[in-house]
Each structure stands twice: as C-alpha cells, then as structure tokens.
C-alpha cells in the first residue's frame, strides 16, 4: 500500500500520531515526524515504501522500521509522553493532546517552524494544536503520520518492558497494559502498581 505524501504550502510538514490510549497502565506516547520534500519523494520508492499503519505491522517489522526512520538523513523526529499521573489528572484525551504537543513543539523548534504552522494529526482535532489538520485514519493514509505511529508504538512497547522489570508479576511484557483477562487477574491479586491509571474504571474499582 502506497501512502500519500501530503504537501502544505508546497512542502510536507509534520505527521503526528499517538499510542497507548486504551491500556490501563503506563504513559500515553506521541511522535512527530518531519521530512523535507526532496528527501521524502525519493524515500517513497525506497525503504520508506514499507511504512504503514503500525497496527498492520508485526512487532519485529515495527522495530526495524523505527530504526530506519530514526537513522534517515534529514528526518527530524521526536517522541514524547504524558504519564499515568497526568492521565489521571487531566483525563486520557487531554493527556494525549499534551503528549502530541510536546512532540510537535520539539520538532518545530528544530526545523524552525512557526508555532501556528499546520501539521497533520491522526484522528480527531487536537485541542493543543488548534491549527493542525486532522486526518481520519491518517495512519493508514499519510506517510508521515504512519511513520509517527511506528515511533510512538515502539517507544511505548519499550516502556512496557521497563515496567515489566520494575513491577515483575504484572505481565506488562505480554499484555502491554491492555485490559486482558490475564491483566485483570493480576490486578485482583496484586492491586494497582504506581503505573496504573487510577481514573480508569477497572483500576478504580479495585482501590
């Protein structure tokens, strides 16, 4: 599947996506990816042609593509997150938007974009980026959003491995914090750990 290479004012600007809104534990991650038009057009027929929505890729393939994206000359990228505590304080939607803005602002500062410059964001409008252009199912349509989805997903998966080491017994390496039967069983047995989102119903009911 060949993804689109959008142009805003004659140049692709930035694609942003998130990972980890649904889990019961851990941060929500966001990534932003920028490529100059000249580099992006050449890459679409090379290695970047394999980029797709992260949900349609195997874990191994995501890891390979994430390394490729990060090592691509002229590719400016950033990965940011909002913690479980921030999710509980603001709610998951607001925390997701905060993570997206953090990733956006880091890339924008490095490529010299003005604060009001439009970007491409997957899904619904983002409150923290009011001038962004939202693209429904953007991770399956846009090259830059798909690349961002891969970076966000692989970063979150790596963080889940860190949670596995810090909180053994919860099975974070396997279920990645999502509400599986095994995760529910562990929550009932051990109770929430510091990374659990206490504002989420299945967790709050156990407190």
Would you kindly provide a written description of the structure presented here, covering whatever features stand out?
With 207 residues, this protein is α/β, with parallel strands linked by helices. It has a single domain (15-204), classed as Nucleotidyltransferase, domain 5. The protein contains 8 helices and 5 strands. A 5-stranded mixed β-sheet has the order 3-2-1-4-5. Strand 1 (15-19) and strand 2 (28-34) form a beta hairpin. Helix 2 packs across helix 5 (143-166) and helix 3 packs across helix 4.
The parts where pLDDT drops under 50 for at least 5 residues are none
Whole-Å distance between the termini?
46 Å
Average the pLDDT over all residues and give the rounded result.
90
Q: What is the helix content?
A: 40-55%
The CATH topology annotation reads as Nucleotidyltransferase, domain 5
Element order: H for helix, E for strand = EEHHEHHEEHHHH
CATH architecture: 2-Layer Sandwich
CATH class, anyone?
A: Alpha Beta
As an assembly, this protein is: single chain
Q: Work out the radius of gyration.
A: 17 Å
- How many β-strand stretches? 5
Count of domains: 1
Our estimate of the beta-strand percent is 5-15%
Strands side by side in the biggest sheet: 3-2-1-4-5
Topology at a glance:
Elements: E1 15-19, E2 28-34, H1 37-43, H2 59-71, E3 76-82, H3 84-90, H4 92-111, E4 120-122, E5 133-135, H5 143-166, H6 172-175, H7 181-190, H8 201-204
Parallel strand pairs: 1-4, 4-5
Antiparallel strand pairs: 1-2, 2-3
